[in-house]
Amino acid sequence: MITDIFCKIINGEIPAEVVYQDDHVWVIKDIAPQAPVHFLIIPVKHFTGLDDVAEHDEALLGKLFRVAHDMAKKQNLDKGYRLVVNEGEHGGKLVPHLHIHLLGGKNLK
Ligand SMILES: [Zn+2]
């Protein structure tokens, strides 16, 4: 049984500030934002990390980037933004469910 916080959010067990959702991708606000805009782009399908991603998942991963870009446009991040994937312990991954951080709204240099 998979019990990470993102699966619980998607299953309706834990509330979150949902920015966008469809059958494949959810976008929520990070509870500890590191920038004026800090969203998490989350696939509904559970991947613990990139080790779990198979060739047939490539379209879904591509969609994560497209949704991230759509969110950035909707937030008027015209001057740019940052997408981050933290992988594994040394990568600083906190939730064992693959996700992309979208950060923007200030100069992140
Ligand atoms: Zn999960």
From TrEMBL:
TM helices/strands, residue ranges: none
Alphabetized InterPro entries for the sequence: Histidine_triad_HIT, HIT-like, HIT-like_sf
Native organism: Candidatus Yanofskybacteria bacterium RIFCSPHIGHO2_01_FULL_41_21
PANTHER family referenced in this protein's UniProt entry, alphabetically: HISTIDINE TRIAD HIT PROTEIN
Q: Which GO terms describe its molecular function?
A: catalytic activity
Taking every annotated instance into account, which residue ranges of this chain make up the domain HIT? 5-109
The protein depicted here goes by the name Histidine triad nucleotide-binding protein
Q: Record's superkingdom? A: Bacteria
Positions occupied by motif Histidine triad motif: 97-101
Report the Gene3D superfamilies cross-referenced here.
HIT-like (3.30.428.10)
Instruction: Enumerate the active-site residues.
Output: H99 (tele-amp-histidine intermediate)
